[in-house]
Write a structure and sequence with these properties.
By secondary structure, the protein is an alpha+beta fold. It has helices at residues 2-19, 41-51, 102-111, and strands at residues 55-63, 70-78, 81-88, 94-99. A hairpin with a 2-residue loop joins strand 2 (70-78) and strand 3. The radius of gyration is 18 Å and the shape is globular.
């Protein structure tokens, strides 16, 4: 019985990071674009969570139409749904705050500037 309890505790500790995993507050796709941004990742994260309270599960800095053309994009889990919040990397303005769906994603990808 004691071995089973120890094994269960070890398994729970091993899985805990995966269950509670959160996006690193400093690592993101598009880091090379940060030198062009006036708003820091930390400021953008704060603005995004103010616009949509929840937990950030993905983040990136990207060139995209709308606003200054450079935006932080955050996927926030809020009330069981994934919400995309876009923050202008030059002004800190909220550019987007809505639910993700495949049609919207396809439209955004088609509109993105070619790399």
């Amino acid at each position: 019985m004691k071995k089973l309890m120890i094994g269960t505790a070890i398994a729970a500790l091993a899985l805990a990071p995966a269950v509670n995993a959160s996006v690193s507050p400093t690592k993101y796709v598009g880091h090379a674009l940060a030198k062009n941004a006036k708003v820091s990742l930390k400021q953008a994260r704060t603005a995004a969570l103010k616009a949509r309270p929840g937990r950030i599960v993905d983040q990136e800095l990207e060139k995209e139409r709308g606003g200054s053309g450079l935006r932080y994009s955050f996927d926030i889990r809020s009330h069981g749904k994934i919400i995309e919040v876009g923050i202008d990397a030059m002004t800190g303005a909220v550019l987007e705050n809505g639910a993700e769906n495949p049609a919207k994603e396809a439209k955004e990808e088609a509109a993105e500037p070619k790399k």
